[in-house]
């Protein structure tokens, strides 16, 4: 497949790109700045592309069409320590624009990396260190909602707190305590690769943490 990874510069996106090419896919690695091209994995199957989520839907549509994209993976984020306005521009408006662009380009498969708790307003007022999470969760919630109603064959992933631990290739779907659970970024990438071509995961949401079940068996 020709897979466009939005946010390929981030840890999850970077790892996902590597795992996708190892499966024989061609990855268009979308990053905000051309200066980030040098940090991307080196492979004949990875094409670096400047992709700015603050640009227009028309610009995004053109990029998708020009690269004959079959599927889009959204793994971008404004990151911590930025203004609420920036979070809204990237995590909400940027995501929605990319969904609209995918539809305009005739793409039907779209995977979203969201967050555990995005559908639960009770957790929106929590903090990550000193960083308020309200705008982040709000952005994820409404981007997810837009994707639900888009008509695309979506899969939305809601990983719990991310860690840099080594991958285990094992997860727990619907963990009971979201506040104490974690999952490695590498295993989020493994879930993306596992679900990409699996029709059973179309139009479904999955909340998960690290756990005892192999990712292949879980899906």
TrEMBL record:
Residues 7-199 form the NAD(P)-binding domain. Signal peptide: none annotated. InterPro entries: NAD(P)-bd_dom, NAD(P)-bd_dom_sf. Pfam families: NAD_binding_10 (PF13460). This is NAD(P)-dependent oxidoreductase.
């Amino acid at each position: 497949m020709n897979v466009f990874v939005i946010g390929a510069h981030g840890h999850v996106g970077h790892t996902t790109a590597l795992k996708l090419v190892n499966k024989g896919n061609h990855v268009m690695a979308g990053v905000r700045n051309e200066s980030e091209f040098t940090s991307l994995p080196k492979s004949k199957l990875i094409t670096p592309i400047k992709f700015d989520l603050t640009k227009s839907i028309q610009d995004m549509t053109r990029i998708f069409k020009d690269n004959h994209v079959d599927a889009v993976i959204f793994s971008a984020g404004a990151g911590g320590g930025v203004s609420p306005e920036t979070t809204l521009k990237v995590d909400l408006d940027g995501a929605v624009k990319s969904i609209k662009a995918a539809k305009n380009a005739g793409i039907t498969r779209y995977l979203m990396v969201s967050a555990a708790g995005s559908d639960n307003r009770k957790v929106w007022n929590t903090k990550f260190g000193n960083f308020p999470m309200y705008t982040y969760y709000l952005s994820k919630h409404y981007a997810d909602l837009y994707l639900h109603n888009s008509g695309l064959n979506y899969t939305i992933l809601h990983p719990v707190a991310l860690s840099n631990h080594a991958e285990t290739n094992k997860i727990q779907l619907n963990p009971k305590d979201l506040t104490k659970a974690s999952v490695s970024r590498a295993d989020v990438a493994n879930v993306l690769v596992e679900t990409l071509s699996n029709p059973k995961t179309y139009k479904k949401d999955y909340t998960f943490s690290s756990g005892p079940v192999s990712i292949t068996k879980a899906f």
